[in-house]
């Protein structure tokens, strides 16, 4: 059956055209019930013993997804119109709903009501699209009721009173979420229900909870129409709010409209905004802008609610600790005041689930065993969240997950609901899971559909692979890999052959992952969602299943494997004469660790062919590296930490800085060269749909802390270009051998984030990679652990005419969306790795209080932030404990980055060495931290 509708629209050129849309309706769309007497039940998803089938509306999905994910809620029909509405309104919830619908262990069935002749409804005259959609949901519920008859009860779940009233009038059973959940007689499920903001019970204060005491705590948010107008007129400024990790009362909003960061002091000026929210900010009058010296590191004993009652425009709206140590005699040396502002509206919320524990709080008049408590997130940037629970006794000493529902301006704290328990507080496995949840890392086992895409084991190169004309047989070459010790997912190998001409043939051989991961398969979909493998201290969470990462694709020694190879002819001066790309078969002769490769190169007694190849590669790599540096590439440094882990208990036995050897740098150099070569090749063939990686130049404001610190120790850094900065960093040497590394670590902190992008979204001048001083760059060399490389392998294969370009490359918006997801996943993986290091650092030092040497990185008005070279740890050292009064006997010079006692006996400067004591303390319940104190 064909439905068609026509309308006219005006094109960009001003022409009026008639558009006709055809809508095909069918009568053979199945209901998904296995007990149905009419439909084909081979693809049924609902259970055969279901007594009730639920039909849910869009708002139930958007607001109650935590409840729907609970296994107690099953036999749910998800209408295609609901799926589409959710996709348009909240992509994160849509992805969670899709996961439920594709999970073979759950009974969620997608019914295409928009394409069934009995459930499709046309929009009526004067009817809004929203009302039409509600009517379509009711029509589908009624069809299910008639279709299934008395075999089962069909129940429409909606919190929309009008929708429920109309359903009841039409004879369709309908209930609210709360009413249905209560009927299940599982009180714990009631904790998962999101209460709409209108039902929000105000908790004005911890001590006084009487409703009669309600008063406005926060300013009202401006409506979106006013925000849009204000942004257009330059009255408001838009940006992402980032809360200071050391001080939750201080946040920054990067604003393109004023070309600087706007500082937001205090909870009142933050006005209920969370870290990561896109906000509209109004600048305060310039006389209320605060000087740099008032920015402090806040202590754990500072109460989060201390400043919320202050006037929104007050410059004193900051934690009380900022008023310590303010010495007027040094005001002349204070840094210029920075633009300060207040949040006037939320453009896009960044609320998600948070991990932490409860801070119990009694509340009078609790009914039905309901207790009220404050949830304290492990992330100090998140305010306490008020929840109601019927399970207080069971979850008081547990790590739990809580979601935010609303934040009323009459309430000091946001309201939320309990989602689930993770485990015992302090347990290593529990705390590791917290790291994954906080960073949105998917660590679930791969589904049966994904595993079904893998070739059977044992797998080996077949005769068909060898005879395939697209694949070159390179098994005769002396190919080898060099990786970290214990590496099992080996995705790159090299060869270096001396040619009769005196030149070298150098090959970079990358695991041919796309030979096994095909576009559009469940395996490919899973990899594209995960985006990257995640490396924690004690384990690795793979992007692809282990049979691929550790066996089929891993370029292990003495085993034939498939590769995608980049092969150059190079002069002894490392000039590239020619480049070719080929699918290949290799047989690695050795899988070396960095330590083993370095030992071979350093041992002058060894003259075997493999060691000679290593030395030749190292010689070429040094020349290539120097050429990069001469072009302006930066040699930065980071504090990478390495743990020695007990194989049985998985507890850390030792901790230290990761050592970089020449062998590491040698491999890095050839991987960079391969990535650059491939970037040029794919862009040449696909100028509008290539996936590239760019590193934007840092702004002068971003580099200011580095310039200021360098000036304080007598260095003048030239930051006019990457080349100028690189040369300045090379000259930044002192008597102290660690001094230069510290400066480079500080420089790394000032850099922008490198990101993936679609070449059609930007102009060529924006493609550049600042850190590498390369006009073009991409990722090709790690397809086992990065999905970006999988995409680039497909682009390269298409550019060589090996395969047809997949459909995604014809849809730039999809490619852009994929790049955005890769950036999100890459950043989350980095954050999870850092959090894992912090967790294991806490475990290691819990029983090992230590005295050690530290370097001052940053001076603040009540202390300084230090870096501990031996352990790669950074943290605050307080000169005034706990924000106590009467401690104002320090003089701070922000300009010179010095802090000294008024009596002049003790002074400290930036980059200075200090002795500190490190031990694990717990100033607040369930929030252990590594405390650094000055000796």
From TrEMBL:
Q: Which residues form the PIN domain?
A: 52-165
**Any idea where this protein resides?**
Nucleus
Per its record, what are the GO molecular function terms?
Answer: exonuclease activity; RNA binding
Q: Alphabetically list the UniProt keywords.
A: Exonuclease, Exosome, Hydrolase, Magnesium, Nuclease, Nucleus, RNA-binding, rRNA processing
Q: Which cofactor does it need?
A: Mg(2+)
Q: Where is the RNB domain?
A: 471-802
- BP-aspect Gene Ontology terms: rRNA processing
Give the CC-aspect GO terms: exosome (RNase complex); nucleus
The record lists the membrane-crossing segments as none
Q: Does the keyword Nucleus apply?
A: yes
Tell me which family the UniProt entry assigns to this protein. Belongs to the RNR ribonuclease family.
Protein name, please? Exosome complex exonuclease RRP44 homolog A
* Protein species of origin: Penstemon smallii
